[in-house]
Amino acid sequence: MKETAKPSIDTRHENLAKKYENPIEKRQNDKIAYTLHPPEGEFTQDEIRKIPAYATERIMSMGNNDLEISFDLELLKTDFEKERRRKPICAIEALLIAHKAGLYPPMWALNYISEAFRKWYEKKGSVSLDRFFGVDTYKGETPIFKTDMLEKRNESVCLTVFVLKTLFGFSIEDASYLTARRLKGSPNWFAVKSITEDTIADIYKKKYSKIYNKAKSLKGIQWSQKKKLDFLLSFPKDAFPVKKGKTLNDLKGKLKA
Q1: Whole-Å CA distances, 87 to 93, 135, 136
Q2: What percent of the chain has pLDDT over 70?
Q3: End-to-end CA distance of the chain
Q4: Looking at residue 13, what is its pLDDT?
Q5: H or E element: which one contains 33?
Q6: Is the whole model's pTM more than 0.70, yes or no?
Q7: Rounded to an integer, what distance in angstroms lies between the CA atom of residue 197 and that of residue 212?
Q8: How far apart are CA 70 and CA 218, in angstroms?
Q9: Pairing, β 54-56 against β 32-35
Q10: What is d(CA 31, CA 21) in angstroms, rounded to the nearest whole number?
Q11: Distances in whole angstroms, Cα of residue 15 to Cα of each of 39, 98, 257
């Protein structure tokens, strides 16, 4: 049986360089968004020149999987700065997301984690890491992971409202109703209780509308026609408004036009 030829190292590096626009090859004025993990292996000097070291802000906002990674890290940073109880969860999650994506973890996350380990190390392990990471729970407090799951639910439903409003022109109220109906159809989603459309709209207006409007990675959000259609079809058909231009059939017609 004939073996399929594996892509050469050179080809692999060329693809990376093309994707991230290697700053060595193309000197454009652009800001570095993230530092990339170095690839493993032994390389020639010419190959090393072709290995991109950074992902720029422009590349990270082009609407692919990198966009979602960038947005997740932005949102975690916002919560880390404003939500005291969620700091350890945000820092740990940011490190895991970045590492899995082949990116150098954000410094705010590394600083927090490094400080917790430093304190634990100085105490020679005599005090639990939970204390230094801030994940221990005192009597009467809501467990930190339950609080985190509730926050993730709120983030997700409000992001859904943002997308419905931004890409399809729904009002906050109509978008909140659509989101609540979809959530109701998935009662075990995030293992937390469902919420009403009024609560979603209230949370969105008070907190998340400002966060999402400021997020660099969401500016000029671009989705393919197929992704837009799949997104619309994820909602119950009878949840769409009956007003002209906002029914499911009207929206499907616009996408196919």
Answers
A1: 10, 9, 12
A2: 75
A3: 48
A4: 53
A5: strand 32-35
A6: no
A7: 19
A8: 9
A9: antiparallel
A10: 12
A11: 13, 20, 34
Q: How far apart are CA 49 and CA 181, in angstroms?
A: 52
Cα 199 to the center of its chain, rounded Å: 23
Q: CA-CA distance, 72 to 215, in Å (whole number)?
A: 10
Given the structure tokens 């943002």, which residue do they identify? 162
Interaxial angle between packed helices 87-100 and 107-122, expressed in degrees from 0 to 180 and rounded to the nearest 10: 120
Q: Residue 255 corresponds to which tokens in the numbers above?
A: 């996408």
Which pair of structure tokens corresponds to residue 219?
Answer: 């500016």
- Copy the structure tokens of residue 28: 């454009």
Query: What is the C-alpha separation between 189 and 10, in angstroms, rounded?
Result: 44
Q: What's the token pair of residue 5?
A: 């030829």
The owner of tokens 């973890």 is 105
Tallying the residues shown for the chain, one arrives at 257
C-alpha distances out from residue 200 to 153, 158, 232, Å: 10, 7, 18
d(CA 203, CA 179): 13
Of 144, 149, 236, the residue nearest 197 (C-alpha): 236
CB-based contacts of 156: which residues, under 8 Å, 6+ apart? 190
- Residue range 68-111, pLDDT digits in tens: 788 888 888 988 888 777 888 899 999 999 998 888 999 999 99
Spell out where 39-164 has E strands. Answer: 54-56
- Residues 238, 146: Cα–Cα separation, whole Å: 32
CA pair distance 125, 171, nearest whole angstrom:
54
User: Which single residue is written with the structure tokens 């500016």?
Assistant: 219
